[in-house]
Amino acid sequence: MTLLSPDVEERTDTRADTPWVTVVWDDPVNLMSYVTYVFQAHFGFGRDKAERLMRQVNDDGRAIVATGPREAMEAHVEAMHGYGLQATVDRAPTP
Amino acid sequence: MIPFVRRPDGVHLGLSSGERALLTSLTEQLRQVLTGDLAADPVAGRMFPAAYPDDDEASAEFRRWTHDDLVAQKTTNVTTVHEWLTGTREGAFDAADEQAWLRCLTDLRLTIAERLGIVDAETEEASSDGGAGVGLRDVYDWLGYVQEHLVTTLTDPR
C-alpha cells in the first residue's frame, strides 16, 4: 500500500532489480524469417530459442523477449523499433 | 533476377536494372516520408510505435529520447540503399550495408502496408482482391520476396 500514485511510484523507482519486460507484438508485415533473424542478431539467442519466441509472437500475438531494468528494456525497444518490429515496455507479470 | 548473390568476398546485389529502378523510386519516396511531416503521417505509428501503450506520458518521454535518433538511423539506411541502387556503392556488402538493406526493406514494407490498410491477416487478404491498390500490393509482395531472400542469403551456412 502506498500513498504515491502509481505513476509517481514508477518514475521514482530506479532499483536495478525492478522487473520490466520487453514485449514484441505480432504484426502482419514482418516476415517470420526476419523476426527470427532479429532475435538472434540483437539478443544473441540461438536459432532454436529465436524461432520459439518468433512462433510465440505469431501464435499468441506477443512474446516477452527480455526481462530486466527499465532502462535496459527501453534500449531493447528502441532497437526493435530500429529493426521495424512492434515492441513495447511493460512491467513484468506478477508470478 | 535473384536479388542477392553470395560470393567469396560477401553478398552482392543481383537485381535487374528494372528492379533497381523500381526500388530506387521507392527509396526516394521513403526518404521523403522520413524527412517530411512524420507527425501527420499514420505510418509513424508503425515505424515509431508507442513504447507504453497504456501510458501516454511515458510513451511521450520515450519518444523524446529516441525519435530523432531512430529517424536519423532510418534515413541513413535508406540513403545507403539508394547509393547501392544508383551505383554510388558497389562490390560486396559490409556489415553496415547488410543492416541498412534489411531495415530499409522493412521500413518500405511497413510504409506500403500502411498505405494498403494492412493491419491483420484479413486486411492483408482483402488488399490482394484487386481494385486500385493491386499494383502496390504486387510491389509489397515482391519486397517480401526480396527481404526473405536477403535474410536467407545472410543466415544460410556458407
TrEMBL record, chain A:
Record domain Adaptor protein ClpS core: where: 17-87
Keyword NAD: no
Coiled coil: none
Biological processes annotated in GO: protein catabolic process; proteolysis
Pfam families given in the database record: ClpS
UniProt KW rRNA-binding keyword: no
GO function terms (MF aspect): peptidase activity
Organism: Neobacillus citreus
This protein's UniProt keywords: Hydrolase, Protease
Protein name stated in the entry: ATP-dependent Clp protease adapter ClpS
